[in-house]
Amino acid sequence: MTNFVEPAVHLLAWTRFDAAKAFNLTGWTVDDDTDPTGGQALAEFAGRSCFQSWKKPRPETSTNAGYLANILRQNHESVVEHATATFYVTGVSRSLLTELTRHRHLSLSVVSQRYVDESDARMVRPPAADSNALIGGLLDDVDSAANIAYVGIVTRLTEQGMNRKQAREAARAVLPNMTETRFVVTGNLRAWRDVLRRRWHVAADAEIRRFAGLILAELRELAPNVFQDFPAEPFGTGE
Amino acid sequence: MTNFVEPAVHLLAWTRFDAAKAFNLTGWTVDDDTDPTGGQALAEFAGRSCFQSWKKPRPETSTNAGYLANILRQNHESVVEHATATFYVTGVSRSLLTELTRHRHLSLSVVSQRYVDESDARMVRPPAADSNALIGGLLDDVDSAANIAYVGIVTRLTEQGMNRKQAREAARAVLPNMTETRFVVTGNLRAWRDVLRRRWHVAADAEIRRFAGLILAELRELAPNVFQDFPAEPFGTGE
Amino acid sequence: MTNFVEPAVHLLAWTRFDAAKAFNLTGWTVDDDTDPTGGQALAEFAGRSCFQSWKKPRPETSTNAGYLANILRQNHESVVEHATATFYVTGVSRSLLTELTRHRHLSLSVVSQRYVDESDARMVRPPAADSNALIGGLLDDVDSAANIAYVGIVTRLTEQGMNRKQAREAARAVLPNMTETRFVVTGNLRAWRDVLRRRWHVAADAEIRRFAGLILAELRELAPNVFQDFPAEPFGTGE
Amino acid sequence: MTNFVEPAVHLLAWTRFDAAKAFNLTGWTVDDDTDPTGGQALAEFAGRSCFQSWKKPRPETSTNAGYLANILRQNHESVVEHATATFYVTGVSRSLLTELTRHRHLSLSVVSQRYVDESDARMVRPPAADSNALIGGLLDDVDSAANIAYVGIVTRLTEQGMNRKQAREAARAVLPNMTETRFVVTGNLRAWRDVLRRRWHVAADAEIRRFAGLILAELRELAPNVFQDFPAEPFGTGE
């Protein structure tokens, strides 16, 4: 019986800003509404440092939300590169991984199919197959066939004297795209904005769009001001 | 009956250097042994421009091979970034693609499994399965099961009103890692050196090591002086 | 008397596409209006390879200009990464270099102020000072003062036993931003599009905007279809 | 009288790891000797996730120091990409900035010479000029001449109706390389390792080597296990 798994993203690490040191150096501090120890405050500090403008005379840019809204509108996204967010991701497919890896500004540490025993790997249902019994049956068939072949290849190659790593490396050839992968992924907030612009989009693959929605929800909690211009529904919905 | 395919790399494009213009600008020309219109000559031009040293007083660096040997030994690999090589690659697996994509300095245009009909996709045997009849049979089994499911999923989803692209996107979930992919890949010669250092290596996956060997053979013909320090056998062989 | 110099960009290298090999592999060839050996044709090949669509049924995308217009409009700029252009640039200032270096996708080989004798360096007038005699006089004064100090520092430090390279490294501290630099710069066409979008812009620094205009003129000749959506006047002019 | 300034690097932000969440997800926790909330622990988590090896059977890799020593020795530096460090840097020259910008994996937010009034800019003495009265006098001369010209150009251009930003943009042409710059710089620990490998080196420019020493001292405190293989003296000293 195939063991299907749902996607999950866990915020694991983020940038901590030493607001007290920043204040000692420049006399500047973020507005009261914003977490002074977070990446949003750091992004504003970085923007202000370019102009050495530590005062806040204009009301519309005196809040962190206002300042970042203005700077993102002007396409100066580089200031949000200073803050990063790291997730531990489970329950996504190797197809998704292959798409995500195209984002060259992300840092990835991925479960190795060469080293890890995949004989009891879990599977990820493509969203189009959700609650679709006929298709679910076809996915089961492939999972079974792949599992039998995977175990068979590892067994035979190790019996012939090959070491386990090389045998698994060969046997992974039969694993389907829907095989679960897990990874640690880090991106700076500019990189995440780029990922979400492309994947939180109606034209994106259904699984990676779902993943983008999960990531966006976490990032909105971590750094709402940096993602204030992102829509609740995928890009392209209302066009 | 599974249609297995062998890997092939086709050199499709490369950097052409306007040696006559370089001569007009600086009085410098590459030594007689080296193609004056190639990336090797451009790399030497770039190196010399840093020091505006257009004369060649020292015999050991008066040839292009000598000049590049010296500059690579000093870790000044950036000069070989100016030249690129582009390949059209066929007969490699999706596993290989996922590994290759980790090299973030490469530019890739890959056959899309979301758009293209994969019902008659060809398969790539892992090297460990070459001339291994028992394992070949297991690969056939998985190919058959995946094919039946792929066609079934596309048929059912389109019958239910889904468009063909979305149906294929869902159905690719069952395709195995050994499914053939094709791509256009471009790297500058520094990026290729990095790829080969890691993949033309005894510790690399067997399929990507075989691929690296094919790439290296092409690059040695295109720019022998840039790859003069690469071994004939994979790195790590003699250690 | 200060030796002022004008900017010049020399197209030194570019991507050559083996159209005959592409035809042999796929049966595809670019339309008659387009240089079959250039980067534009390669970009179309790369785009078509993603969909394995080697036929040209739709008139609006049957030409290279039409195909690339369509693909750039859809934000699939990655296909133009496969083609590069390399320039030898002279007559630009160190200020410009510092700004250009921010474009991390460019590859640069720059005249080293640590190694090269700068006692007879040429100067680059900022565009605002063109035909402005009063300001020209001020630039001359700085050039003279810097030159005297540069020669003085090198002389004294070498007299005190320091080697020439270390002495020049210290002496360059006095060289002004307007000091000429020269460099070899390579970018793929996507990187150049990004540079031009930001620097061929009314909000850009005057010198780098002038430089961007020179680069754009060369790129329009090399790959008109890739830059067909770029304006004749800097971005922002008509807004 | 020239206002000379000394370099300073201030650690402003770093990666905070949610060790409790990592433990809940995997049962793994870092050894007692290591800060469980820091980037070092995250790097080990990322490395272990690749192999899903959450137990620590081998004593030599059961500590964080041992684990990272082993992984760095094997050239798997990518796991330290997940942690970053951000500095606010003051008292360094524009020459240093130009060199540092070559490290394309760093994120920089730099004081803009186009926007900020540089008429009272501070200067950075090259290390070779320390306690060298003759050379100090030459630096003063250049500073005075540059300052007079800078103020003169801004005054005249604004009198002629140019706006202040454009006038400063033109006037910066006369500022010397030794002019102080300030910036916020972020790098992941792999990027910092690469910077230090090249700049904490006897062959590096004297000012950037001094800067590298300051950065290394901060990073050793933040993440000693990640920099355990770096020497106390610059690379190349003992060769």
Global geometry of chain A: elongated
- Structural category of chain A is alpha+beta
| Termini gap of chain A | 42 Å
Task: Name the beta content range of chain A.
Answer: 5-15%
Mean pLDDT of chain A: 95
Structure description:
4 copies of one chain form a homotetramer. The mean pLDDT of chain A is 95. The first copy, chain A, has a 4-stranded antiparallel beta sheet. The first copy, chain A, folds into 2 domains: 11-85 and 189-222, no CATH class; 86-104 and 111-182, no CATH class. Helices cover 42% and strands 14% of the residues of chain A. Chain A has 239 residues and is α+β, with helices and mostly antiparallel strands. Chain A has 8 helices and 4 strands, in the order βαααβαβααβαα. Chain A is elongated and about 75 Å long. Chains in contact: A-B, A-D, B-C, C-D. The A-D interface holds A 10-18, 21-22, 25, 39, 42, 45-47, 49-52, 78-79, 81-84, 86, 88, 107-112, 115-116, 182-184, 186, 188 and D 10-18, 21-22, 25, 39, 42, 45-47, 49-52, 78-79, 81-84, 86, 88, 107-112, 115-116, 182-184, 186, 188.
How would you summarize this macromolecular structure in one to three sentences?
The first copy, chain A, has helices at residues 19-26, 39-51, 64-73, 94-100, 133-159, 164-171, 189-199, 206-222; strands at 8-17, 84-93, 107-110, 180-188. Chain A has 239 residues and is of the alpha+beta class.
Characteristics:
homotetramer; 239 residues; alpha+beta; 2 domains; 4-stranded antiparallel beta sheet; 8 helices; 4 strands
Write the layout of secondary structure elements.
Four copies of one chain form a homotetramer.
Chain A: E1 8-17, H1 19-26, H2 39-51, H3 64-73, E2 84-93, H4 94-100, E3 107-110, H5 133-159, H6 164-171, E4 180-188, H7 189-199, H8 206-222
Antiparallel strand pairs in A: 1-2, 2-4, 3-4
